[in-house]
Amino acid sequence: MRVKRKVTGVAVAVGALALTGLALAPAAVAVTPDTATITADCGAFGGGEATLTATQDGTSATLTVNSSAITAPIALAEDSITSTLTLVGASGATTAFTGTENPAMAAGDPVRVGPLNGTVASGDTLEAYGGSLQMTVFGITITCTAAAPQSPGPFVFD
């Protein structure tokens, strides 16, 4: 009986230590900031403020672009826009995020594309300024560029 109590006591102590370790473990660090804004210039298709939202899971990252200032010129079906968002790194190298994800949009609706998928390395610092967003709709390519650096600053991937 004593052995059973000791084993039970040791098991409870080990479990408590494990839970304490989990509770005190630091949260996983990922991309910071997770959102940034830019002023986009899309030429004849308009322009204005756009929000970039980033996520990271290891070397995989996604970016979503939302803008109420840039609107759909015509009704668009779900997943009908082929998009490439190119960001510029601190070294001048570029990283592309691509995809065909978008919600259905009526003419005049705010534009949203993504999540767009890309590959990053730990320590990558990526910025929209100097890069571009290309969206191809019905064979027509719309290119948007940032008019200034993104705010609050570049994305830094863990």
Properties at a glance:
Lipoprotein, 1 helix, 9 strands, 15% helix, 158 residues, mainly beta, disordered N terminus, Immunoglobulin-like, signal
Structure notes:
- This is Lipoprotein.
- Keywords: Signal.
- It comes from Streptomyces resistomycificus.
- The structure is a single chain.
- The protein starts with a helix and ends with a strand.
- With 158 residues, it is mostly beta strands.
- The model is unreliable at 1-28 (pLDDT under 50).
- The protein has one domain: Immunoglobulin-like (Sandwich).
- The chain is globular.
- It is built from 1 helix and 9 strands; from the N terminus they run αβββββββββ.
- Strands 1, 2, 3, 4, 5, 6, 7, 8 and 9 form a 9-stranded antiparallel beta sheet that branches.
Q: How are the SSEs ordered, and which strands pair?
A:
Layout: H1 2-24, E1 35-41, E2 47-57, E3 60-71, E4 82-89, E5 94-99, E6 110-119, E7 125-137, E8 140-146, E9 155-156
Antiparallel strand pairs: 1-2, 1-8, 2-3, 3-6, 4-5, 4-7, 7-8, 7-9
